[in-house]
Amino acid sequence: MKTVTAREFYHNAALVDGLRDGQQLVVTSKGKPKFIVSKGERPRMTREIAEQRAFGSAKGKKIDGVAFIRSLKK
Question: Is pTM beyond 0.85 here?
Answer without folding.
Answer: no
